[in-house]
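Chains adopt folds. We examine one example:
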Amino acid sequence: MTHKRTTWIMIAAFVAAMGGSRTATTALAEDEKAHFHHVHLNVVDPAATIKYYKKFFSAVEVDFRGANKALLTDRSFILMNQVETPPISDTRSAIWHMGWGGVDGPSEYEWRKKEGVEFESELTPLGNLHFMYAYGPDREVVEIWTGFHHNRFGHVHLFADDINASAKWYASNLGLAAPSREIPKPPAPPEGFEPAVGDMSVFRFLWATQATTDAVTINIFGKPGPEKPFWWKYDPINEFEKTDGRAIDHIAFSFRDIEPVFERMKDAGVEIVDPINERADYAMKSFFVRGPDGVLVEIVEDRPLPEGIWDHSH
């Protein structure tokens, strides 16, 4: 089995094992728990991005607050910032990819391939299930995993220097559900370790956790570096670059009222990148903070979907 094939079998198996799990929540005393709001992309051609996600991922084009074009993906959005030159899309930041479900892997793969989609990782079986990694228009990576048995947007995959600290940050600051105990760092695999297809023993050597919202899962893997792990095909990551300005620029969560959230996060020592402001490009009020490992996180004032899409008057 090739190195590349091993990599994606392990990752898809993790998604299959973890995707339906429920974990303990770090509750916020006075605020509601965050809802996942959007992924924000830097794109050269917004029309091309809209066309791509409408065609291949069942996204719906919307006129967001009457201010800008966006994409609706089930209960969250893809927002876009137009840039003149192609954004950086290499694997040097802590945002690895975003992911959708799939239903019929071979048919969906053949259709996308025939329509000209480029794949970072080709269709790979896992028992009766399949997964694949596609490139978006600006080479952002998009996973499709049929274990969820739907075609909806479902997760964002992050890396972390410390997966427990990362999960705790999202739980304590945003109210996401996260494991109630720390996940110990696993031992290094034996020299020459190369698991067979579907071999679940890979989990003995995979440092991973997740934090969940009501609609989207944040999968978190330990950083593939400075020692290169057996499952990583690129150069090892020694230090994360900030996500700002990259193909996947940032992720965003929403609360109905962001004032108390801002004050609480500021008091907790969270790095404030940009305080509360009205964002004219999408007619929304938000602030930006620096999450773990250089991830830019936006906190938006909005109602959760479906009510939020119909009434933005608050």
About this structure: The mean pLDDT is 87. Residues 3-184+192-310 form a domain with the 2,3-Dihydroxybiphenyl 1,2-Dioxygenase; domain 1 fold (CATH 3.10.180.10). The chain has six helices and 15 strands. The chain has one domain: 3-184+192-310.
